[in-house]
Amino acid sequence: MDIVLCVTQDCQLRCTYCFAGRKTPKAMTAEVAKRAIDMALREPGRPGSTERKVAFFGGEPLLEWDLIVETVSYARGRGSFGGPPLHFGVTTNGLALNAARLEFLKSQGFALCFSFDGSRSAQEACRPFPDGASSFEATDRRLREALEVFPDLEAVTVVSPANVRFLAASVSHLLERGVKKVVLNPDYFSSWSDEDLHAWRAAYEQVAAVFVERYRAGEACFINILVVKIITRIRGGYGPGERCDFGGCYAAVAPSGNIYPCQRSLNEDRGGPLCIGNVFDGLLRERKRAIHACQGACNPACRGCALKARCRNWCGCVNAALSGDAATVPGVVCFHERMAIEAADRAANTLYSEENPAFMRTYYPGE
After folding, report:
1. With 89 labelled, which of 103, 113, 294, 353 sits at a CA distance of 20 to 30 A?
2. Does residue 205 surpass a pLDDT of 90?
3. Domain for residue 228, yes or no?
4. Domain of residue 237, CATH code
5. Which of 30-34, 104-108, 240-244 has the lowest mean pLDDT?
6. How far, in Å, CA of 237 to CA of 240, rounded?
7. What are phi and psi of 186, to 5 degrees?
8. CA–CA separation, 127 vs 18, rounded Å?
9. Mean pLDDT of the chain
10. Which residue segment(s) compose the domain that 22 sits in?
């Protein structure tokens, strides 16, 4: 089983869109972390997978640095007895990174996801310090330091109504800093007005224009909302291993040891129907199976949609949170997916018609 260890609910920032809820000093103990690792190694992984992924999340996980180091050591020791290979990852705002920590993460083969909204305006709109002060300079400095050690890190930018109008500038800033992989993470949980939705569509068209210009300059770049939709167009949809495994071979563990089907479901760890067990008592397998079984878009409009195979209608945690049903796709998700596909297709059509060398090498290597 792949697991996400939400090692703390505390953070140095007060992001307006954080789905982890109210910030408290509640932190995971080493005993909870070790039992979670035992569960990950004991439970089956995704079909066809021979590895296990262990990700550290928060709050801000690096606030519990000693726990991360101890957990990695324990997991490596457990894995040395013939278990599946372990791959580690961490999602961080970067503020607690330093040279020694970067070297440790590198030495342990971590995948580094760096949360940063990009431009000054976007960062200041949504990611302030608790006193309201700007976190832009400190975060931008840590990004430059992280890129020295992790040139292939992933920059994660949340797209919300408050920062969507700065999105193209944010993506450009990250690319100019040397980020090779930009992941735009929609904030579905905020209230999007008609004006905001119009700005979102315009922003994606602007991001697509940035994408096209990078390729015209001979530089392949990765912007997830475009790249993934281009790939699904070429091969006819998402593969089974790329879809959400809500309630399947993936789980998030809260500081208390409670287990949830996704870190988005954890929130402030209040239990409830999406809590699928505890590392001390085990999994509630019937509840887990029931959650997993109800995935898949059931909206009548989805059934005959020509874009269904290319749509992220299967994200159980978002569906459950917004519609009350893991199988029912909220309207904002439909809006986003259509918009992303349209922007990606226009960008791809432009570059394909130009026979852009970098684009053709990346997506059509045999032509």
Report:
1. 294
2. yes
3. yes
4. 3.20.20.70
5. 240-244
6. 10
7. -65, 135
8. 9
9. 94
10. 2-242
Q: How far is CA 221 from CA 117, 152, 205, 225, 297, in A?
A: 18, 12, 16, 12, 31
Contacts of 65 (CB under 8 A, 6+ apart): 96, 101
Site of tokens 């195979």: 309
Q: What's the pLDDT at 76?
A: 92
Between β-strands 258-260 and 250-253, what pairing exists: parallel, antiparallel or unpaired? antiparallel
Q: What is the CA radius of gyration of the chain?
A: 20
**What string of DSSP letters covers 18-45?**
-TT-S----B--HHHHHHHHHHHHHS--
The distance from CA 122 to its chain's CA centroid, rounded to whole angstroms, is: 18
The count of domains in the chain is 1
Phi, psi values for residue 156, rounded to 5°: -105, 120
Place of tokens 């400095």: 141
14: burial class by Cβ within 10 Å (0-12, 13-18, 19+)? middle
Helix (H, G, I), strand (E, B) or coil at 280: coil
pLDDT in tens, 164-178: 999 999 999 999 999
Predicted confidence at residue 81, as pLDDT, reads 65
When pLDDT is cut at 50, 70 and 90, the band that residue 82 belongs to is: low
